[in-house]
Design a protein that fits this description.
alpha+beta, two-stranded antiparallel ribbon, 2 helices, binds zinc ion
């Protein structure tokens, strides 16, 4: 059984619900981030008000801050760790996230 995560899901204008969804499998160039902080933005408000068409069931939200839990390419952590201006929290090279 796969792990579950919480997702904000658009249902219809005026209705966004929090649902359990399966954790995604990461692809060869992906990272999996545990969201620690998030917010809404103008796009989310337009979606909620039905002004920006979105299909029912779509997971919305695109303003997260979090911790990288896993990388498909571990060598990416080493390269990205030398660029702290990205504003992302990540484990140091060779460390496992807590
Ligand atoms: Zn936004």
């Amino acid at each position: 059984m796969s792990k579950l995560m919480k997702a904000a899901v658009y249902i219809e204008p005026g209705r966004i619900v929090l649902e359990d969804r399966p954790m995604p499998e990461i692809g060869p160039l992906d990272a999996l981030m545990r969201v620690t902080t998030t917010t809404i933005c103008g796009t989310d408000i337009h979606i909620l008000e039905g002004e920006h068409p979105v299909e029912s069931g779509r997971i919305i939200g695109h303003e997260p801050v979090g911790v990288i839990e896993s990388l498909a390419l571990p060598s990416l952590a080493t390269r990205k760790a030398s660029a702290p201006s990205q504003g992302l929290s990540r484990p140091a090279a060779g460390q496992t996230p807590a």
